[in-house]
Amino acid sequence: MAKPAPARRPMDARAANIYPIEAISPYANKWTIKARVTVKTPIKTWKKANNNEGKLFSVNFLDESSEIRATAFNDAVDMFYDVLQEGEVYYISHSASTSVVKPAKKQFSNLSHDYEITLENSIKIEKAEDQSSVPNVRFNFCNLGELRDVEKDSTVDVIGVLKQVDEVQSITSKTTNKPYEKRELVIVDDSEYQVRVTIWGQTAQSFDAMPESVVAFKGVKVSDFGGKSLSLLSSGTMAINPDIGDAHRLKGWYDSQGRTADHFNTHSNLASVGNATGRANDSKTISEVKDLQLGMDDKPTYFSLSATVVFIKQDSFCYPACASDACNKKMTEISDGLWRCEHCNKNFPAPQYRYVMQINVCDHTGQLWLSCFDDTGRLIMGASADELMSFKAQSDGELSADPVPAFENANCRRYNFRVRAKMETFQEQER
Protein backbone atom coordinates (compact mmCIF):
# COMPACT_ATOMS: atom_id res chain seq x y z
CA MET A 1 0.00 0.00 0.00
CA ALA A 2 1.42 3.36 -1.04
CA LYS A 3 2.31 5.80 1.70
CA PRO A 4 0.57 9.20 1.66
CA ALA A 5 2.69 12.14 0.53
CA PRO A 6 4.03 14.19 3.41
CA ALA A 7 2.25 17.47 4.10
CA ARG A 8 4.00 20.56 2.78
CA ARG A 9 5.32 22.82 5.49
CA PRO A 10 3.35 26.10 5.54
CA MET A 11 6.32 28.44 5.81
CA ASP A 12 8.00 26.89 2.78
CA ALA A 13 4.83 27.54 0.79
CA ARG A 14 5.36 31.26 1.34
CA ALA A 15 8.55 31.25 -0.69
CA ALA A 16 6.68 32.16 -3.89
CA ASN A 17 5.12 35.23 -2.24
CA ILE A 18 8.13 36.79 -0.56
CA TYR A 19 8.23 40.59 -0.48
CA PRO A 20 11.62 42.14 -1.41
CA ILE A 21 13.14 44.31 1.31
CA GLU A 22 13.77 47.13 -1.14
CA ALA A 23 9.96 47.46 -1.56
CA ILE A 24 9.23 47.74 2.19
CA SER A 25 7.46 51.06 2.95
CA PRO A 26 4.77 52.49 5.28
CA TYR A 27 2.21 52.05 2.48
CA ALA A 28 2.22 48.24 2.57
CA ASN A 29 0.92 46.71 5.81
CA LYS A 30 0.80 43.04 4.79
CA TRP A 31 4.10 41.51 3.81
CA THR A 32 6.49 38.63 4.41
CA ILE A 33 10.23 38.94 3.90
CA LYS A 34 12.84 36.21 3.95
CA ALA A 35 16.01 37.71 5.37
CA ARG A 36 19.28 36.99 7.08
CA VAL A 37 20.21 38.75 10.33
CA THR A 38 23.57 40.33 9.52
CA VAL A 39 23.90 42.45 12.68
CA LYS A 40 22.38 42.05 16.15
CA THR A 41 23.20 44.66 18.79
CA PRO A 42 23.39 44.03 22.53
CA ILE A 43 20.40 45.16 24.59
CA LYS A 44 20.70 48.82 25.54
CA THR A 45 18.89 50.45 28.45
CA TRP A 46 18.04 54.05 29.23
CA LYS A 47 16.65 56.06 32.11
CA LYS A 48 15.21 59.54 31.63
CA ALA A 49 15.05 62.42 34.09
CA ASN A 50 11.38 61.61 34.84
CA ASN A 51 12.50 58.09 35.92
CA ASN A 52 11.05 56.48 32.79
CA GLU A 53 13.12 53.44 31.90
CA GLY A 54 13.35 51.34 28.78
CA LYS A 55 15.41 48.96 26.70
CA LEU A 56 15.96 48.19 23.02
CA PHE A 57 18.01 46.21 20.55
CA SER A 58 18.36 46.35 16.77
CA VAL A 59 19.01 43.93 13.93
CA ASN A 60 19.78 44.34 10.24
CA PHE A 61 17.71 42.17 7.85
CA LEU A 62 19.28 41.36 4.47
CA ASP A 63 17.96 39.76 1.28
CA GLU A 64 19.04 39.81 -2.38
CA SER A 65 17.42 43.23 -2.96
CA SER A 66 18.46 45.38 0.01
CA GLU A 67 19.06 45.64 3.76
CA ILE A 68 16.83 47.23 6.40
CA ARG A 69 17.16 47.96 10.11
CA ALA A 70 14.61 46.71 12.67
CA THR A 71 14.37 47.75 16.33
CA ALA A 72 12.51 46.21 19.28
CA PHE A 73 11.58 48.21 22.38
CA ASN A 74 10.74 47.12 25.94
CA ASP A 75 8.36 44.09 25.92
CA ALA A 76 9.30 43.32 22.31
CA VAL A 77 12.91 42.89 23.44
CA ASP A 78 11.86 39.95 25.61
CA MET A 79 9.78 38.58 22.73
CA PHE A 80 12.41 38.68 19.97
CA TYR A 81 15.93 38.96 21.39
CA ASP A 82 16.50 35.22 21.89
CA VAL A 83 14.60 34.32 18.71
CA LEU A 84 16.76 36.33 16.31
CA GLN A 85 20.33 35.09 16.01
CA GLU A 86 23.04 36.76 13.96
CA GLY A 87 23.79 34.92 10.70
CA GLU A 88 20.48 32.99 10.60
CA VAL A 89 17.69 33.30 7.99
CA TYR A 90 14.06 33.95 9.01
CA TYR A 91 10.61 34.59 7.62
CA ILE A 92 9.37 37.90 9.08
CA SER A 93 5.65 38.59 8.52
CA HIS A 94 3.29 41.45 9.25
CA SER A 95 -0.45 41.46 8.53
CA ALA A 96 -1.99 44.00 10.94
CA SER A 97 -3.79 47.12 9.76
CA THR A 98 -1.31 49.53 11.34
CA SER A 99 2.12 49.99 9.80
CA VAL A 100 5.31 49.14 11.65
CA VAL A 101 7.49 50.78 9.00
CA LYS A 102 8.81 54.28 9.71
CA PRO A 103 11.32 56.65 8.05
CA ALA A 104 14.86 55.56 8.91
CA LYS A 105 16.80 57.45 11.56
CA LYS A 106 20.03 57.81 9.66
CA GLN A 107 22.00 58.90 12.75
CA PHE A 108 21.58 55.38 14.15
CA SER A 109 22.09 53.33 10.99
CA ASN A 110 24.63 52.94 8.21
CA LEU A 111 22.11 51.40 5.78
CA SER A 112 20.86 53.12 2.64
CA HIS A 113 17.22 52.04 3.03
CA ASP A 114 14.80 54.96 3.46
CA TYR A 115 12.73 53.10 6.06
CA GLU A 116 13.13 50.88 9.12
CA ILE A 117 10.91 48.38 10.94
CA THR A 118 9.68 48.50 14.53
CA LEU A 119 9.37 44.96 15.89
CA GLU A 120 6.02 44.71 17.68
CA ASN A 121 3.74 41.87 18.78
CA SER A 122 2.01 42.05 15.38
CA ILE A 123 5.23 40.71 13.82
CA LYS A 124 5.56 36.94 13.32
CA ILE A 125 9.03 35.41 13.00
CA GLU A 126 9.96 31.83 12.07
CA LYS A 127 13.33 30.39 11.21
CA ALA A 128 13.66 29.29 7.58
CA GLU A 129 14.58 25.72 6.69
CA ASP A 130 16.67 26.81 3.70
CA GLN A 131 19.52 28.87 5.16
CA SER A 132 21.51 29.12 1.93
CA SER A 133 19.15 31.10 -0.32
CA VAL A 134 19.95 34.54 1.20
CA PRO A 135 23.36 36.24 0.86
CA ASN A 136 25.52 36.64 3.95
CA VAL A 137 26.41 40.30 3.47
CA ARG A 138 26.20 43.07 0.86
CA PHE A 139 29.20 45.36 0.37
CA ASN A 140 29.50 48.59 -1.59
CA PHE A 141 33.24 49.14 -1.38
CA CYS A 142 35.00 52.49 -1.61
CA ASN A 143 38.70 52.12 -2.34
CA LEU A 144 41.04 53.85 0.07
CA GLY A 145 42.23 56.40 -2.47
CA GLU A 146 38.65 57.59 -3.05
CA LEU A 147 38.30 58.59 0.61
CA ARG A 148 39.76 61.99 -0.29
CA ASP A 149 36.37 62.88 -1.84
CA VAL A 150 34.19 61.41 0.94
CA GLU A 151 32.63 63.89 3.36
CA LYS A 152 33.31 63.81 7.09
CA ASP A 153 30.86 61.62 9.09
CA SER A 154 29.83 59.65 5.98
CA THR A 155 29.50 55.87 6.29
CA VAL A 156 31.28 53.64 3.77
CA ASP A 157 32.36 50.03 3.20
CA VAL A 158 36.08 49.37 2.67
CA ILE A 159 38.31 46.36 2.12
CA GLY A 160 42.06 46.16 2.54
CA VAL A 161 45.06 44.07 3.43
CA LEU A 162 45.98 44.26 7.10
CA LYS A 163 49.37 45.95 7.40
CA GLN A 164 49.53 46.83 11.10
CA VAL A 165 47.74 45.72 14.29
CA ASP A 166 48.20 47.77 17.48
CA GLU A 167 47.58 46.57 21.02
CA VAL A 168 44.24 47.18 22.74
CA GLN A 169 44.09 50.52 24.54
CA SER A 170 41.74 51.62 27.30
CA ILE A 171 40.52 55.21 27.10
CA THR A 172 38.04 57.27 29.11
CA SER A 173 35.47 59.40 27.29
CA LYS A 174 35.76 63.09 28.14
CA THR A 175 32.00 63.56 27.76
CA THR A 176 30.64 60.49 29.58
CA ASN A 177 33.67 59.62 31.77
CA LYS A 178 33.12 55.97 30.81
CA PRO A 179 35.98 53.60 29.86
CA TYR A 180 36.22 52.22 26.33
CA GLU A 181 38.49 49.63 24.72
CA LYS A 182 39.88 50.36 21.26
CA ARG A 183 42.38 48.92 18.81
CA GLU A 184 44.02 50.68 15.86
CA LEU A 185 44.50 48.86 12.56
CA VAL A 186 46.20 49.98 9.34
CA ILE A 187 44.97 48.61 6.00
CA VAL A 188 46.23 49.11 2.43
CA ASP A 189 44.72 48.45 -1.00
CA ASP A 190 45.66 48.55 -4.67
CA SER A 191 44.99 52.31 -4.91
CA GLU A 192 48.37 52.42 -3.07
CA TYR A 193 46.85 54.21 -0.08
CA GLN A 194 46.88 53.21 3.57
CA VAL A 195 44.26 54.22 6.17
CA ARG A 196 43.94 53.77 9.93
CA VAL A 197 40.80 51.98 11.16
CA THR A 198 39.67 52.00 14.82
CA ILE A 199 37.63 49.11 16.19
CA TRP A 200 35.96 49.20 19.61
CA GLY A 201 34.82 47.15 22.61
CA GLN A 202 34.54 43.40 22.33
CA THR A 203 35.47 43.55 18.64
CA ALA A 204 38.79 45.16 19.60
CA GLN A 205 39.46 42.68 22.41
CA SER A 206 38.71 39.55 20.38
CA PHE A 207 40.43 40.64 17.14
CA ASP A 208 43.00 38.00 16.19
CA ALA A 209 43.57 38.36 12.44
CA MET A 210 47.18 38.10 11.33
CA PRO A 211 48.91 40.82 9.28
CA GLU A 212 48.48 40.32 5.53
CA SER A 213 44.93 39.04 6.05
CA VAL A 214 42.22 40.65 3.92
CA VAL A 215 39.66 42.47 6.07
CA ALA A 216 36.32 43.79 4.80
CA PHE A 217 34.48 46.44 6.84
CA LYS A 218 30.80 47.25 6.41
CA GLY A 219 29.70 50.49 8.03
CA VAL A 220 32.78 52.52 8.98
CA LYS A 221 32.50 56.22 9.77
CA VAL A 222 34.84 58.64 7.99
CA SER A 223 36.74 61.09 10.18
CA ASP A 224 39.03 63.88 9.00
CA PHE A 225 41.05 64.17 12.20
CA GLY A 226 44.67 64.36 11.04
CA GLY A 227 43.57 63.57 7.49
CA LYS A 228 41.23 60.68 6.76
CA SER A 229 40.67 57.84 9.21
CA LEU A 230 37.90 55.32 9.80
CA SER A 231 35.98 54.01 12.81
CA LEU A 232 33.85 50.85 12.86
CA LEU A 233 30.35 51.72 14.04
CA SER A 234 28.49 49.57 16.56
CA SER A 235 26.02 48.77 13.76
CA GLY A 236 28.86 47.82 11.39
CA THR A 237 30.43 44.45 10.70
CA MET A 238 33.86 43.07 9.86
CA ALA A 239 34.83 39.95 7.88
CA ILE A 240 38.29 38.35 7.86
CA ASN A 241 39.37 36.83 4.53
CA PRO A 242 35.82 36.80 3.11
CA ASP A 243 35.16 34.46 0.19
CA ILE A 244 34.28 37.23 -2.29
CA GLY A 245 35.80 38.40 -5.56
CA ASP A 246 37.15 41.69 -4.20
CA ALA A 247 39.04 39.88 -1.45
CA HIS A 248 40.62 37.39 -3.87
CA ARG A 249 41.61 40.20 -6.26
CA LEU A 250 43.16 42.23 -3.45
CA LYS A 251 45.08 39.26 -2.09
CA GLY A 252 46.47 38.59 -5.57
CA TRP A 253 47.62 42.21 -5.91
CA TYR A 254 49.28 42.17 -2.48
CA ASP A 255 51.14 38.91 -3.12
CA SER A 256 52.46 40.14 -6.48
CA GLN A 257 53.07 43.85 -5.78
CA GLY A 258 51.83 45.23 -2.47
CA ARG A 259 54.03 43.17 -0.17
CA THR A 260 57.23 44.63 -1.68
CA ALA A 261 55.97 48.24 -1.94
CA ASP A 262 58.21 50.60 0.02
CA HIS A 263 55.65 53.42 0.31
CA PHE A 264 51.89 53.92 0.55
CA ASN A 265 50.15 57.27 0.25
CA THR A 266 48.08 58.70 3.11
CA HIS A 267 45.39 61.36 3.38
CA SER A 268 47.19 63.13 6.22
CA ASN A 269 47.87 66.23 4.11
CA LEU A 270 44.16 67.05 3.85
CA ALA A 271 42.56 69.81 5.90
CA SER A 272 41.18 68.50 9.19
CA VAL A 273 37.75 70.13 9.50
CA GLY A 274 34.96 71.22 7.21
CA ASN A 275 36.73 70.03 4.08
CA ALA A 276 34.64 67.84 1.83
CA THR A 277 36.55 68.64 -1.33
CA GLY A 278 40.00 67.49 -0.30
CA ARG A 279 41.54 70.99 -0.47
CA ALA A 280 45.14 70.53 0.60
CA ASN A 281 45.98 73.81 2.37
CA ASP A 282 43.73 76.40 4.01
CA SER A 283 46.25 77.83 6.49
CA LYS A 284 45.94 81.57 7.02
CA THR A 285 47.84 84.33 8.76
CA ILE A 286 45.93 86.69 11.05
CA SER A 287 46.23 89.54 8.55
CA GLU A 288 44.78 87.30 5.82
CA VAL A 289 41.86 86.40 8.10
CA LYS A 290 41.07 90.08 8.56
CA ASP A 291 41.73 91.15 4.97
CA LEU A 292 39.57 88.33 3.58
CA GLN A 293 36.88 89.02 6.21
CA LEU A 294 36.57 85.33 6.94
CA GLY A 295 33.37 84.45 8.76
CA MET A 296 31.45 87.50 7.57
CA ASP A 297 29.16 85.38 5.37
CA ASP A 298 26.00 83.56 6.51
CA LYS A 299 27.81 80.23 6.51
CA PRO A 300 30.76 79.45 8.81
CA THR A 301 34.29 79.43 7.40
CA TYR A 302 36.98 77.03 8.59
CA PHE A 303 40.70 77.68 8.44
CA SER A 304 43.96 76.70 10.12
CA LEU A 305 46.06 79.17 12.08
CA SER A 306 49.49 78.88 13.67
CA ALA A 307 49.69 81.45 16.48
CA THR A 308 50.98 82.14 20.00
CA VAL A 309 48.75 82.65 23.05
CA VAL A 310 49.58 86.09 24.54
CA PHE A 311 46.64 86.73 26.89
CA ILE A 312 43.80 84.78 28.53
CA LYS A 313 40.83 86.51 30.17
CA GLN A 314 40.64 85.36 33.78
CA ASP A 315 37.36 86.90 34.94
CA SER A 316 35.07 84.31 33.33
CA PHE A 317 37.21 81.45 32.06
CA CYS A 318 34.74 78.68 32.98
CA TYR A 319 31.16 78.01 34.03
CA PRO A 320 29.45 75.59 36.46
CA ALA A 321 28.17 72.80 34.20
CA CYS A 322 25.71 70.02 34.98
CA ALA A 323 27.34 66.89 36.40
CA SER A 324 25.08 64.58 34.35
CA ASP A 325 26.66 62.70 31.45
CA ALA A 326 26.53 64.68 28.19
CA CYS A 327 24.34 67.51 29.54
CA ASN A 328 26.84 70.35 30.12
CA LYS A 329 24.10 72.94 30.70
CA LYS A 330 24.86 75.76 33.14
CA MET A 331 23.78 75.16 36.74
CA THR A 332 22.79 77.66 39.43
CA GLU A 333 23.61 77.50 43.14
CA ILE A 334 20.30 77.37 45.01
CA SER A 335 21.80 77.06 48.50
CA ASP A 336 25.11 76.49 50.20
CA GLY A 337 26.41 73.23 48.81
CA LEU A 338 23.48 72.57 46.47
CA TRP A 339 23.35 73.24 42.71
CA ARG A 340 20.43 72.82 40.30
CA CYS A 341 20.23 71.99 36.59
CA GLU A 342 16.92 73.17 35.15
CA HIS A 343 17.51 71.19 31.96
CA CYS A 344 17.80 67.85 33.81
CA ASN A 345 15.48 68.96 36.63
CA LYS A 346 18.01 67.63 39.16
CA ASN A 347 20.03 68.91 42.12
CA PHE A 348 23.72 68.18 42.66
CA PRO A 349 26.17 68.76 45.53
CA ALA A 350 28.66 70.36 43.13
CA PRO A 351 28.96 71.35 39.46
CA GLN A 352 31.51 70.14 36.95
CA TYR A 353 33.31 73.25 35.76
CA ARG A 354 33.98 73.55 32.02
CA TYR A 355 36.15 76.01 30.13
CA VAL A 356 34.65 78.79 28.02
CA MET A 357 37.73 80.94 27.47
CA GLN A 358 38.55 84.09 25.54
CA ILE A 359 42.16 84.08 24.41
CA ASN A 360 44.23 86.56 22.42
CA VAL A 361 46.70 85.07 19.94
CA CYS A 362 49.27 86.63 17.65
CA ASP A 363 51.52 85.80 14.76
CA HIS A 364 53.95 87.96 12.82
CA THR A 365 51.06 89.73 11.05
CA GLY A 366 48.74 90.73 13.91
CA GLN A 367 46.51 89.74 16.83
CA LEU A 368 43.15 87.96 17.03
CA TRP A 369 40.63 86.99 19.73
CA LEU A 370 39.45 83.37 19.80
CA SER A 371 36.80 81.61 21.88
CA CYS A 372 37.83 78.22 23.28
CA PHE A 373 35.72 75.52 24.88
CA ASP A 374 36.51 72.73 27.30
CA ASP A 375 38.70 70.37 25.25
CA THR A 376 40.83 73.21 23.92
CA GLY A 377 40.94 74.87 27.34
CA ARG A 378 42.30 71.69 28.94
CA LEU A 379 45.03 71.52 26.31
CA ILE A 380 46.07 75.15 26.75
CA MET A 381 45.86 75.25 30.56
CA GLY A 382 47.27 71.79 31.18
CA ALA A 383 44.56 71.11 33.77
CA SER A 384 40.79 70.81 33.98
CA ALA A 385 38.61 73.77 34.91
CA ASP A 386 37.58 71.82 38.03
CA GLU A 387 41.23 71.68 39.14
CA LEU A 388 41.70 75.42 38.65
CA MET A 389 38.49 76.25 40.52
CA SER A 390 39.54 73.93 43.35
CA PHE A 391 42.86 75.72 43.65
CA LYS A 392 41.10 79.09 43.46
CA ALA A 393 38.93 78.13 46.44
CA GLN A 394 41.96 76.95 48.44
CA SER A 395 43.88 80.16 47.78
CA ASP A 396 40.99 82.49 48.73
CA GLY A 397 40.19 83.28 45.13
CA GLU A 398 43.71 84.28 44.13
CA LEU A 399 44.91 82.10 41.28
CA SER A 400 48.16 84.08 41.24
CA ALA A 401 49.06 82.52 44.59
CA ASP A 402 50.21 79.44 42.68
CA PRO A 403 54.06 79.26 42.59
CA VAL A 404 53.68 78.74 38.84
CA PRO A 405 50.64 80.92 38.00
CA ALA A 406 48.29 78.88 35.85
CA PHE A 407 47.43 81.61 33.35
CA GLU A 408 50.92 83.06 33.08
CA ASN A 409 52.28 79.58 32.49
CA ALA A 410 49.84 79.10 29.62
CA ASN A 411 50.99 82.25 27.81
CA CYS A 412 53.70 82.44 25.16
CA ARG A 413 52.96 78.96 23.84
CA ARG A 414 52.46 78.38 20.14
CA TYR A 415 49.67 76.14 18.80
CA ASN A 416 48.20 75.04 15.50
CA PHE A 417 44.55 76.07 15.80
CA ARG A 418 41.58 74.85 13.78
CA VAL A 419 39.18 77.81 13.67
CA ARG A 420 35.51 78.21 12.84
CA ALA A 421 34.60 81.80 11.98
CA LYS A 422 30.98 82.96 11.77
CA MET A 423 29.13 86.23 12.30
CA GLU A 424 26.75 86.04 15.28
CA THR A 425 24.28 88.46 16.85
CA PHE A 426 24.50 88.93 20.62
CA GLN A 427 22.41 91.53 22.49
CA GLU A 428 21.46 93.10 19.13
CA GLN A 429 25.10 93.53 18.13
CA GLU A 430 26.93 91.61 15.42
CA ARG A 431 30.28 90.14 16.33
N/C terminus separation? 96 Å
Mind telling me the C-alpha Rg?
Answer: 27 Å
Mean pLDDT: 83
CATH topology of the largest domain: OB fold (Dihydrolipoamide Acetyltransferase, E2P)
Total of domains? 3
Largest sheet: 8 strands, mixed
Assign a percent range to the helix content.
10-25%
Please, what is the CATH homologous superfamily of the largest domain? Answer: Nucleic acid-binding proteins
Number of strands: 26
Second rung of CATH, namely the architecture of the largest domain = Beta Barrel
Low-confidence stretches: 1-13, 269-280, 400-404
Structural class: mainly beta
**Helix count from the secondary structure assignment:** 7
Into which percentage range does the β-strand content fall? 35-45%
Q: According to CATH, what is the class of the largest domain? A: Mainly Beta
Shape assignment:
globular
